[in-house]
Design brief:
Layout (H helix, E strand, L loop, with lengths): L1 E6 L3 H4 L8 H18 L3 E6 L27 E5 L10 H7 L4 E7 L1 H14 L3 E10 L8 H12 L5 E3 L7
Parallel strand pairs: 1-2, 1-4, 2-3, 4-5, 5-6
Helix pairs in contact: 4-5
Length: about 170
Amino acid sequence: MYALLILDIQVGLVHGPEKPWRGEALLKTVNALMDQARSAGAAIFLARHIGPVGSPIEPGSPLTMLAPELTLLGGEVVFEKRRPNAFEMTDLADNLRARGATGVVVAGMKTQYCVDSTCRAARDLGFDAVLVADGHTCSDTAVMKAEDIVAHHNATLDGPFCRLVRAAQWRF
């Protein structure tokens, strides 16, 4: 059984000064994945990245709130994380196992940080990791365009660290 894990679709990343590549498309994809997960009875987990006190994403900051475009119906598990890897210093793995999940479908932000490290960690913890190829994004950096970052990570992670699928191909 698979659970859906959505990483850091929060106000500061979606609506901040560095706009995510294909941001609107990502929100639609994530909402469609949540609808599908609900229909299948799969658990939905949403991570919110929290930074240290004094940072723009300190505890309680409105920038850490989930993006209002997400369709939340109340059955989702929302949790805070403080590291890029959503399993590190959280009870995510225990909560997944308690719900009978043997695999995790990963979507969200940012590709090169939280998406990457969470996919790698999921396999290390014994979960079948599935990355939604068109379900994660980031912003341009000084070195690389976001579109290239996403393509690079899809190619790098697929196989050794996760199974890559397009959202339209996935079924819970």
